[in-house]
Amino acid sequence: MGRCVLLFLLLGFLMSGVAIPLPPALRALSNVRLSTSFTSLPSGDMEHSIRYVQQKVDHFGFKTDRTFKQRYLIADKHWKRDGGSILFYTGNEGDIVWICNNTGFMWDVAEELKAMLVFAEHRYYGKSLPFGANSFKDSKHMNFLTSEQALADFAQLIRHLKRTNPGADNQPVIAVGGSYGGMLAAWLRMKYPHMVVGALAASAPIWQFEDIVPCGVFMKIVTTDFRKNDPDCSESIRRSWDAMNRFSRTGAGLRWLSEALQLCTPLTSSQDVQHLKDWISETWVNLAVVDYPYEANFLQPLPAWPVKEACQYLKNPGVSDTQLLQNIFQALNVYYNYSGQAICLNMSETSTSSMGHLSWSYQACTEMVVPFCSNGFDDMFEPHTWDLKKFSDDCFNLWGVKPRPSWITTMYGGKNINSHTNIIFSNGDLDPWSGGGVTKNITDTLVAITIREAAHHLDLRANNAFDPMSVQLARSLEVKYMKQWIRDFYSSLRKKH
Amino acid sequence: MGRCVLLFLLLGFLMSGVAIPLPPALRALSNVRLSTSFTSLPSGDMEHSIRYVQQKVDHFGFKTDRTFKQRYLIADKHWKRDGGSILFYTGNEGDIVWICNNTGFMWDVAEELKAMLVFAEHRYYGKSLPFGANSFKDSKHMNFLTSEQALADFAQLIRHLKRTNPGADNQPVIAVGGSYGGMLAAWLRMKYPHMVVGALAASAPIWQFEDIVPCGVFMKIVTTDFRKNDPDCSESIRRSWDAMNRFSRTGAGLRWLSEALQLCTPLTSSQDVQHLKDWISETWVNLAVVDYPYEANFLQPLPAWPVKEACQYLKNPGVSDTQLLQNIFQALNVYYNYSGQAICLNMSETSTSSMGHLSWSYQACTEMVVPFCSNGFDDMFEPHTWDLKKFSDDCFNLWGVKPRPSWITTMYGGKNINSHTNIIFSNGDLDPWSGGGVTKNITDTLVAITIREAAHHLDLRANNAFDPMSVQLARSLEVKYMKQWIRDFYSSLRKKH
Asked: Cβ separation of B63 and A139 shorter than 8 Å?
C-alpha cells in the first residue's frame, strides 16, 4: 500500500546519478495521486466519519507544546459494545482515504469481529500536517517525521478513542497495516503491547534494513515474477538496457528512442537516458508489486495479471534493437496507458499538488534506509551497487540530514524479535517486498503466512471473485488468529474481575 | 539510588508555595554531592575503567546530527568470554561514579555470573552533558533530557559494547537499576527486549504516576516506618507542625525557633517557616528512604537504623511546644550532624557546583510527574493536596515547559504490562517508594520480591554483616533468576546453530 512509493524513491536514489528529488520518483508519486482521483469515496457499506485528534507535534521533547490535527476515519456500523473489538489501521505514506479505499479486508471482516474500524493517517501525509503548508519547508519543519512519532500518535489516538467512545475502553485493539503500514502495525505491537493485543503486518519488509537480507533480493524477486511468466520476457528486459545504451550514443539515436517510446519530452542527453532507464526499471518493479489477479486501480488503472499482460509483448529477446525497444514500448503501455487515454508517455512529470512524496523522501533519507542493489545476473536489471556514501551525500544536499542506516535495527530489533507475541506477518510470493519480510514462523505467536500467487498485500484488499484460493485461506487464517487474540483478551479481563 | 533526590524535588513542589528551584530541593542535592565527596573511588575489587561513547544528542530527530560523549564505567575482572554475561546498570539521576560506589551487589555477583560490569551514566548527569556547561541553560538545551533518549543511549551503548569487546557479541545482557534507574532497567527490557534478556528493577516505582496508586501512599509509608519504631515518634512529628506554626506568629517566636533548631540563617517570615517545614518533612522522608541496618553514607553519613536513632528523641508527644521542638532538633541532628562537625543546620544552602538537581527538576516538570499528597490522618504530615495546575504553572515559570502527566502511562503501559517477560521488581517494605512499585507477581516471569526490613534498594548495596536474612535471600533469588535468563539465552543460541 503505497509501498511502491517507497520503492520508487529508493530506486531513484539507487539508480540515478542526480540529487533527490528525482523525476521518476516524483512521477511515480504523481501516479499515486492520479489513482486516488480515480477511486470513488467509500459509500454504502464503507460509510465512515472523518475525525481529527489533537496530537503533540513532538512527543519526545517538551520545548514546544505545539499540537496539530491528525485525521482519522472511523466506521462503527458493525461495532458491538458488548464483546466487540477495534481494528486500527496504522496509516502509512499516503492519504488515509486512498489507503482506506484499498483496504477492503477490514470492511469485509468488521461484522464477524463486531469491530469498530479506525484508519489513522500518518503524520506528514494527507491532511495530517504538523505545520500545515510549511510542513515540508525544511529539515526543521520535517524534524518530527519519524516512525517513533507516528507510533506515539497511534498510541495517543487509541487512548483518545477509548476515552471518547463509551464501551470502547474495555475492548481489544488489533493493529492492521500493509507495507510500511505493516511495519508500523508490527512495531506498534512490539513497542506498545499495552495498546494493541496483536497486529496483522501485511507485506511488511521489517528486515529490509542494514545487511539483514541481501540488498539484491528485491530485484531478484521482480525478475522471477517476469521470468515465471516467460523466461523470454525477463531476457528481453535484460537485453533492452544495452539496446538503449546503443541508441543513446548519437542524436539520431536519442530522437529515435524518444519517438519509439512516444515520450512527451524528447531525450537530449545521456543523463536523460539514465532517467529513462530508471523510469522503465521502476515500471517493471511496479508491475510486479501490483500484479493482482483482477483489474485494479491501486497505483494505476491496470488489467488483471499486469505482468503477464506486459510479457505478451516481450516474447522474443533475439530481435533487433529497434524491434526490442518497440516491444518494450508496448509493454510500458500496459502500465501507463491501460485506459487508452495517454497521448504520450511522461517520464518527467512532477507533482506539485501532492506532498506525500517529499515526506517519504525525507523518511528514506533519515530512518528508513533500505539498501537496494542489482547485479544483472540474478536479476534482469543493469548492475548497481548500494552506495551508502553517495546516498548520504544526496540526502544531505536535499534535506540537510544524514541517514542513520543502523537505527531501525537498534530501535526495532532486526531479526531478534522472538520475545514479542501476537503478530501475523503475511507475504505474497509474487511481492518483491517479501524478500525483506518474515516468511517463516518465529514462534507460536509470531507467525508467517505466505500467500501463493499474491502480490503486495493482496490479503488486505476486498474479497474478489478472482482471488486465488491461497489468499482466501490466508484471510481466514488471519481472522482466526484475530479471534483468538480477542478471546484471550476477554478471558483475561474476566479473570481480573 | 538518588531517588531521594527526586523526592526532594517533588516534595519541594508539593509543599512549598514558591517557584522551583526550591531551597530544600537544592539543599537536598547539595547533600548528595557532599556524600559523593565522602565516598572514595572504587579500588581493589571494584577496579574499573572510565570510558566514553559518542551518542546522538537527538535519537528521535535528524535536524541535528550533533553528538556528545556519554560516560560509562566498565569492569571485566571476572568477565569470561566463554559463557559469560554483561550486567548493565541503567544510570539514573546522579553521577555514575557515586552510583557505582553504591551498587556493591553487582560487584559481589560478578564472579558467579562471569559478568562484565557496565555502569552507564544517564545523559544530563555527571559528566555526560550533551551541551557541556550550556546543557542546563534553557528548555532548548534541556530538550533532549527524556527517559526515551536515555533508553536509546543505553541501547546504542550495548550495541557499541558488543561491537568493541570481542566475545561480548554473543552474550546476554541483563539490565540492573535502582529507583529511577530501576524504572529504566524495566523499561529497557520492555522497549528493547532484543538488547537485554531481563532486568532487575530495584525499588522502581513504575506505578507512581497519574492515579495508578493513591497520591498519599508515599507519605503513609514514611509515617508507618516511624510509627513502627514507636507510635509516640510519629505522633511527636505530627504535633510538631502546629507547634512550629504557633511559634511563627511572632518575631520572638521566629527567633526562638531559629535558635532552638540552630539554623544557620534565622527565620524572618512565615514563608521561611514553610520552607522550614518542607525541609524537616524531607528529612523524615529521607531517613525512611535510607533506613539501612548499618552505618552508611548514601545521601549523608548516617548511623545504622537512622529512623530508630531519630525516634529515640521523640518518645513523648505530650510535652510542651518548646520541649517538643527541642526534641525535633535532636532528631534532625541524626541526619544532619552524625559526623558531629556541623556548627549549625543549613536549610537554605544551595549548590552551584552540582548540576544534577536542575536536570531532575526538568524531568519532574516534563515526563516524570509523580503526584504526592498527605492528609495528616493517614500520615504524620500537614495536609497537602496534589495540585497539578499549580505544579504545571511552576514548571512553566521555571523551565518554559508544561508537564504531560499521562505520557509515562501511554509510553510504558501503566498497570497493563503483562505481555512483557523477565523482569524482577524488588522492593523493601520500609521503602516509601514501594507504594508505587510492583509488589505482587504479575506473571511467572514478571516477578515481585518484597524484602522485609529493607529500605530503598538495599538489595543493590554490597553484602554487609548486618544485612537482614531477608535481603540475603532476595539477592540469592535475584541471582537465581538471572542465571536462568543466562541459561535460556545460551540454550536458544545453541538451538540456532
From this structure: yes
